[in-house]
Design a protein that fits this description.
Oligomer: single chain
Order of helices and strands: EEEEHEEHHEHEHEHEEEE
Number of strands: 13
Strand content: 25-35%
Strand order of the largest sheet: 6-5-4-7-8-9
CATH superfamily of the largest domain: von Willebrand factor, type A domain
């Protein structure tokens, strides 16, 4: 089944191997409170976990927040993770090693008492090989079901994972939503535009961590895609020099997910015009780097 065009609002972007395309739903929510996850590192890339609110400068649409509602380190929030695996022909030679590294990552990070994850493989279409579960053995089997072949619909897969999986997962309290994307970043089949996929990730409050499988050392369009997606959502893109470095990249993702701050505030002068409102956060210590999603979309009347 061919994936529908984004210009056709009656159908959803992206095609599943197992499901019919669902009607496209436009998510419009009234933004009265902005919630962010912040990662702070020093010049050596080490996590800084002991900062107070007074040490941050927060600007929403170039203005300080009207009111800060919450600020606290939350290194152990329950995780809701989507593991997205590029199964296109371009990564065929490295696929087995990537599968095994991803399995080891799941065993290291998923806590059966609090965390849930799903596995999605994609080439020219996406396929959820294991739905949300806290069972790492089931997740591992889901990874092993993926077989490489075909083109690449990266943006469709990210859009679907955010809109239909992470946004829809019911929770009883605050959680940390993340996508771990293993891909070379190339896209040859998506009908969703890059900006649409990034916007959906921002709406779903999903942090994207991209682990590149392109080992040629050349920063091409695929690398730029991974970096743009990660930076826009407050995540990070990793570019291992060789496949043996993949476990180290996964280890850094694990450490980061457990070493972040939670911030919630009411924005000043919020106008319901549907426009993008940029967020800029720095610390008083100029030697520290803060990563967070770059903004959000105001509600639209």
């Amino acid at each position: 089944m061919p994936a529908p065009q984004p210009s056709q609002p009656a159908t959803a972007p992206g095609v599943s191997k197992s499901d019919e395309a669902a009607p496209l739903q436009v998510f419009r929510t009234r933004v009265e409170e902005v919630s962010l996850v912040l990662t702070v590192t020093d010049k050596r890339g080490r996590f800084v976990k002991d900062l107070t609110l007074d040490e941050f400068r927060i600007l929403d649409n170039n203005r300080p927040p009207k009111q800060v509602l919450k600020f606290e380190p939350q290194t152990n929030l329950p995780l809701r993770v989507g593991l997205l695996i590029d199964a296109s022909n371009s990564i065929r030679e490295r696929f087995s090693f990537e599968q095994q590294a991803a399995i080891e990552f799941l065993h290291a990070i998923i806590r059966s008492t609090t965390d849930r994850a799903f596995v999605l493989g994609f080439d020219e279409v996406w396929d959820v090989t294991q739905d949300f579960t806290n069972d790492v053995d089931l997740l591992s089997r889901g990874l092993k079901k993926i077989r490489p072949g075909g083109g690449t619909a990266l943006w469709d897969s990210v859009f679907y994972a955010c809109r239909d999986k992470l946004m829809q997962e019911k929770t009883t309290g605050p959680v940390r939503r993340a996508i771990i994307l293993i891909s070379d970043g190339d896209d040859t089949q998506s009908r969703v535009l890059p900006k649409e996929a990034i916007e959906m990730a921002q709406r779903a409050e999903v942090i994207v961590y991209a682990v590149s499988t392109d080992l040629n050392g050349i920063r091409d369009s695929g690398s730029k895609n991974l970096r743009a997606l990660a930076e826009a959502t407050g995540g990070r893109a990793f570019f291992p020099a060789k496949v043996q470095d993949l476990p180290d990249a996964f280890g850094q993702v694990e450490g980061e997910l457990r070493s972040q701050y939670a911030l919630a505030y009411k924005p000043a002068d919020l106008i319901a015009n549907g426009q993008f409102r940029p967020i800029h956060i720095v610390t008083k210590d100029k030697g520290l780097k803060v990563r967070a999603r770059r903004g959000y979309f105001a509600p639209k009347e």
